[in-house]
């Protein structure tokens, strides 16, 4: 009995001693400062954010396990969408519209692509750009165009386009609907060629301005250029112009391409797909107006600055806004660029909308200074 009590006492003392030693090490560890971890590189943070956005996107595509329904439906993520997440990042905004993206990627690989360009454009306009690539073949018209126009102001062939998603089934129908849409070549041939008011800047005057400042116009970008008429007119002057355009209810991209022009199917919110400081001219047409959020407008202006070379020109053509906003918001915003004002013309917008909202037009030609 005495031996057993001795062993128990010995074990108790050992346990107490062990706890005391553990508490000592723990207190010393808490008192000492842990080493500062090295900073995480910015590029790694961006990669992690992309991966996280992709995981969140795929998670949203899967049905929630906590949802209680009488007949739960099991959704299968298209295999090509899962494959694409491993080989290329998906734009983070895609995860906000999982149903639309799921529909876009739900196709039959190695066959004809579905006629869903309107769905693709809807995703692009919501910031889901670039879209995931697909392994399918673009559908073409049943009969190829026998001859394509070499002059950008000749009538466009209807059989070179697929008209399934449009009410009009021909370019002549679009011209009758509204001659200002850019599909009536007789009307387009006269644009940018004459001077009717201070808001106009004819191409010959633009070329003369560049020549007088010992500058040269060779490469340009037309943002929101519709069917590419500005690019067509500049092509006749041996100036290469790329046009960004969207198919808002009509085949603007197809029309520009049929005219022998390069069109880029990109939204206004996308970073311009051009390298830094390589363009002689950037023009913003009717698409760039007051409906663009001010912050997005500011990013656009600074991206224009990024692609323009020193001495290059920024042409804001018929930009409209409320008169008070031009004075208090947009003029100071444009002024932040520090460009030389070659032309600055303001006039009232005299249509019904302009009169009702007190809107004005601004046409500005600005020249980028050389870096100091």
UniProtKB/TrEMBL annotation:
Keyword Transmembrane: yes
InterPro entries: Prob_Methyltransferase (IPR053223), Put_SAM_MeTrfase (IPR004159), SAM-dependent_MTases_sf (IPR029063)
Top-rank lineage group of the source organism: Eukaryota
Keyword field contains Glycoprotein: yes
Membrane topology category: Single-pass membrane protein; Single-pass type II membrane protein
GO molecular function: methyltransferase activity
Signal peptide: 1-18
Subcellular location: Endomembrane system; Membrane
An annotated GO BP: methylation
GO CC annotations on file: endomembrane system; membrane
Gene3D superfamilies hit by this protein: Vaccinia Virus protein VP39 (3.40.50.150)
Coiled coil residues, start to end: none
Keyword line: Glycoprotein, Methyltransferase, Signal, Signal-anchor, Transferase, Transmembrane
SUPFAM superfamilies xrefs: S-adenosyl-L-methionine-dependent methyltransferases
Family membership: Belongs to the methyltransferase superfamily.
Name of the molecule in the record: Methyltransferase type 11 domain-containing protein
Source organism of this protein record: Nyssa sinensis
């Amino acid at each position: 009995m005495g031996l057993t009590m001795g062993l128990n006492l010995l074990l108790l003392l050992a346990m107490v001693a062990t706890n005391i030693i553990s508490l000592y090490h723990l207190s010393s560890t808490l008192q000492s400062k842990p080493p500062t971890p090295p900073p995480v590189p910015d590029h790694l943070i961006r990669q992690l954010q992309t991966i996280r956005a992709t995981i969140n996107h795929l998670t949203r595509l899967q049905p929630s396990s906590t949802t209680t329904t009488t007949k739960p439906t099991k959704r299968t993520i298209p295999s090509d969408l899962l494959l694409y997440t491993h080989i290329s990042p998906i734009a983070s905004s895609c995860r906000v519209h999982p149903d639309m993206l799921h529909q876009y990627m739900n196709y039959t690989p190695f066959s004809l692509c579905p006629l869903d360009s309107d769905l693709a454009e809807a995703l692009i306009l919501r910031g889901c750009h670039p879209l995931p690539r697909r392994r399918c073949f673009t559908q073409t018209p049943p009969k190829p165009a026998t001859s394509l126009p070499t002059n950008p102001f000749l009538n466009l062939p209807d059989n070179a386009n697929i008209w399934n998603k449009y009410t009009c089934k021909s370019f002549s129908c679009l011209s009758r609907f509204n001659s200002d849409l850019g599909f009536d070549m007789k009307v387009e041939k006269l644009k940018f060629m004459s001077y009717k008011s201070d808001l106009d800047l004819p191409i010959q005057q633009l070329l003369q301005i560049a020549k007088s400042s010992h500058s040269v116009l060779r490469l340009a970008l037309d943002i929101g250029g519709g069917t590419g008429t500005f690019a067509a007119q500049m092509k006749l002057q041996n100036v290469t112009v790329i046009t960004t355009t969207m198919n808002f209810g009509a085949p603007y991209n197809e029309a520009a391409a049929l005219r022998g022009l390069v069109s880029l199917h990109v939204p206004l919110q996308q970073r311009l797909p051009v390298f830094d400081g390589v363009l002689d001219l950037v023009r913003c047409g009717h698409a760039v107006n007051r409906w663009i959020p001010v912050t997005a407008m500011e990013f656009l202006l600074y991206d224009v600055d990024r692609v323009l070379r020193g001495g290059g020109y920024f042409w804001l053509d018929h930009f409209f806004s409320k008169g008070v906003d031009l004075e208090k918001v947009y003029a100071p915003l444009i002024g932040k660029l520090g460009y030389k004002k070659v032309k600055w013309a303001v006039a009232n917008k005299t249509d019904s909308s302009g009169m009702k909202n007190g809107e004005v037009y601004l046409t500005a030609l600005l020249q980028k200074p050389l870096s100091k």
